[in-house]
UniProtKB/TrEMBL annotation:
Natural source organism: Plantactinospora endophytica
Record key words, sorted: ATP-binding, Membrane, Nucleotide-binding, Transmembrane, Transmembrane helix
Pfam families referenced in this protein's UniProt entry, alphabetically: ABC_membrane, ABC_tran
InterPro entries, A to Z: AAA+_ATPase, ABC1_TM_dom, ABC1_TM_sf, ABC_transporter-like_ATP-bd, ABC_transporter-like_CS, P-loop_NTPase, Type_1_exporter
Protein name per Swiss-Prot or TrEMBL: ABC transporter ATP-binding protein
Membrane topology: Multi-pass membrane protein
CDD domains with a match to the protein in the record: ABC_6TM_Rv0194_D1_like (cd18543)
């Protein structure tokens, strides 16, 4: 390993940890090889799913600059803001010049009238500065908050548009931190950092120019202070950018940890894993603390340098200025004005470290936000996609056909390897297969949660990829094995896909799913169910999800083991009612238990990514050993042959 270069900027992490920037950027590259490295599995959690950028932190504010269009609606406000800021600075700069006049004029000549006039002018300038600062702050905060809200809405809408594959791979905490803390960082920069950057640089240039005009020698001495400032800010910028990125990523990791443990609190408690989870959290929190301290130290070091430079120049100016007054090349009033103006440079210089820090954080935040916004949804409407024709009454189901369908998850082997299957209009076809053979995957392709890798799926002869997504999804009712409910009212959960559903339709769907228990909840259908519906039992959640799927009698029903959490008695009741619904609906139902197979007209056996047998339950039981093995406890070998 190459020895550390002494002059290389470093990022300090935990105590005793000192990482040169060059090595840190290599580390970032190694640890963030893209969205998911080969072998990394977001489901198994073999390795943490860190959705990070594939390159070190972007040294250019390209992504920050791309956000400029969000400022467009606030153009007028921004113009007022800048005018107010410059006018306030101008008023501030004018005060020392008035003081110079007062010292060299009325004070030197004991002219009390003149002194009163100049004192009044200084007072007016002070009041004007205060009023202008108020206008600036008001315009500043309202535009930044409005812009933050618009970006947040856009990210949320984009997340909703993105395909499921994206959400499979991204940690929710990483998304959460981008929508919350990264946006706040950008707001802070736009409302303070950017403004102060423009105002302070302008103030610096204006004051130094004025100082050179007042006394060229002393003015150039002050201007020379910019050289060490420039060198220090360059070193700081490089190191701080990486530290900021690291901190923001770690915040996302911690948010994921909190979210996971909140969602899995029952499991954590039931398995007595509280101490382990607590120490896992403490470790993450410590890492975050160390990175934040390292970043804080960087800022403190640079701020101290930035503090020292103007004070050193001030001391030099006082000595050289006294000499100049003694030699008569500067009046006392001139020296007072010079020093007063020079004092006005202290804040712009001191705040430079903070401004650079805010800018770096905003650049990193913009990079992180565009990592999401730049991801294009892959499951989208094709150009010229059509709506499915509306079909009323019996036979609404339509024919559902899988034609040589292949599908594999990114970076994984193919799960489906040429599935050929036809579900006749109004038919209920059960899909049976061993755990993990791809049944849920097969079902997910129908509402296009994923698109097929090869082959095609047709609905009434129409390739579903040529159909508009909204039209397809309004035709297909879905209930997955893990019922997802939201922290909304029962009614809102039920009508998620059918906002226009009437009271009678809701009642009918609830009756089929044997979910009438909702009427006994404290506020009936208006009862808000807790996050993810955890205030309901598994069976209740499943029945609600089933009612949601069948609400409005969709033409095609896709049900993933919809009755798995029900007791035998309720299952029989649901089956009986569901059978009536399924009569004129085309349905594809994943089934694990022989009792649920009774719902189906035919059964298809999925094995090795293909449909290896199709027939009635009785036929398959009689003729296909592998089917017997899957649906009964009969022992077979891997090829599906019955062992005698
Ligand atoms: N989002 C995903 N990303 C990557 N791989 C996945 C994903 N979902 C499923 N898989 C993999 O695809 C294969 C099929 O999974 P699927 O959930 O379709 O099986 P299944 O037959 O429905 O299983 P089960 O009967 O247990 O519900 C499995 O090997 C699984 O690990």
């Amino acid at each position: 390993m190459a020895p550390d270069r002494d002059d290389e900027p470093t990022v300090r992490g935990r105590p005793g940890f000192r990482l040169p920037v060059r090595r840190l950027s290599a580390k970032l590259r190694a640890h963030r090889p893209g969205l998911l490295s080969p072998g990394e599995d977001s489901r198994t959690g073999d390795r943490p799913t860190r959705c990070r950028l594939a390159r070190p932190a972007n040294p250019l504010p390209r992504n920050l600059w791309r956000l400029r269009h969000y400022l467009r609606p606030y153009r007028a406000q921004l113009v007022w803001l800048m005018l107010a800021a410059f006018a306030a600075t101008g008023a501030g700069i004018a005060v020392p010049l008035v003081v110079q006049r007062a010292v060299d004029g009325p004070i030197a000549h004991r002219d009390s009238g003149g002194l009163l006039r100049l004192g009044g002018l200084a007072l007016v300038l002070g009041l004007a500065e205060a009023g202008l600062i108020f206008i600036r702050r008001w315009a500043q905060s309202s535009s930044a908050v409005g812009m933050e809200a618009t970006i947040r809405d856009d990210i949320y809408a984009h997340l909703q548009r993105l395909h499921i594959g994206f959400h499979d791979r991204w940690q929710s905490g990483q998304l959460l931190s981008r929508v919350t803390s990264d946006l706040s960082v950008i707001r802070r920069f736009l409302s303070f950092g950017l403004l102060f950057l423009v105002v302070n640089v302008t103030t610096y240039v204006a004051v130094v120019t004025l100082l050179i005009t007042l006394h060229p020698g002393l003015g150039l001495l002050v201007a020379a202070g910019a050289v060490p400032l420039f060198l220090a800010s360059r070193r700081f910028t490089r190191a701080y950018l990486l530290a900021a990125r690291r901190l923001q990523d770690e915040q996302g990791d911690l948010a994921t940890l909190i979210e996971e443990s909140a969602q899995g609190i029952r499991t954590v408690k039931a398995f007595g894993r509280r101490p382990e989870m607590t120490s896992r959290f403490a470790a993450g929190s410590r890492t975050l603390h160390d990175t934040a301290t390292g970043k804080g130290r960087l800022l403190a070091r640079t701020s101290a340098q930035f503090d020292l430079i103007p004070n050193l120049t001030l001391a030099a100016v006082l000595v050289a200025g006294a000499v100049a007054v003694a030699h008569g090349s500067l009046t006392i009033g001139g020296l007072v004005a010079f020093v007063s103006l020079q004092l006005m440079l202290i804040w712009p210089i001191e705040s430079l470290a903070w401004i650079i820090a805010t800018a770096q954080e905003a650049m990193t935040a913009a990079d992180r936000i565009y990592e999401v916004l730049d991801t294009r949804p892959t499951v989208v409407d094709r150009p010229g996609a059509v709506a499915l024709p509306r079909v009323e009454g019996a036979g609404r189901g339509g024919e559902l056909r899988f034609d040589g369908v292949w599908f594999g998850y990114p970076q994984g082997p193919p799960v489906l390897r040429g599935v050929d299957l036809t579900v006749q209009p109004g038919e209920t076809l059960a899909v049976v297969g061993t755990t993990g053979c791809g049944k849920t995957t097969l079902l997910s392709l129908v509402p296009r949660l994923y698109d097929v890798t090869a082959g095609r799926i047709t609905l009434d002869g129409q390739d579903i990829q040529d159909v508009r997504l909204d039209s397809l999804r309004s035709r297909v009712g879905v209930a997955f094995e893990e019922p997802t409910l939201f922290s909304m009212s029962v009614r809102e959960n039920l009508t998620l896909g059918r906002a226009d559903a009437g009271e009678e339709e809701v009642r009918a769907a609830l009756a089929v799913a044997q979910a009438d228990f909702v009427y006994d909840l404290p506020w009936g259908l208006d009862t808000r169910i807790g996050e993810q519906g955890l205030s309901l039992s598994g069976g209740q959640r499943q029945r609600l999800a089933l009612a949601r799927a069948i609400l409005g009698r969709p033409g095609v029903l896709v049900l993933d083991d919809p009755l798995s959490a029900l007791d035998v008695h309720t299952e029989a009741l649901v089956e009986r009612a569901l059978a009536r619904v399924l009569r004129d609906t085309t349905a594809l139902v994943v089934v694990h238990r022989p009792s649920t197979v009774a719902l189906a007209d035919r059964v298809a056996l999925l094995a090795d990514g293909r449909i290896v047998a199709v027939g009635t339950h009785a036929e398959l039981l009689r003729e296909v050993p592998a089917y017997r093995s899957v649906l009964s406890a009969e022992d077979t070998d891997d090829l599906g042959l019955v062992r005698s």
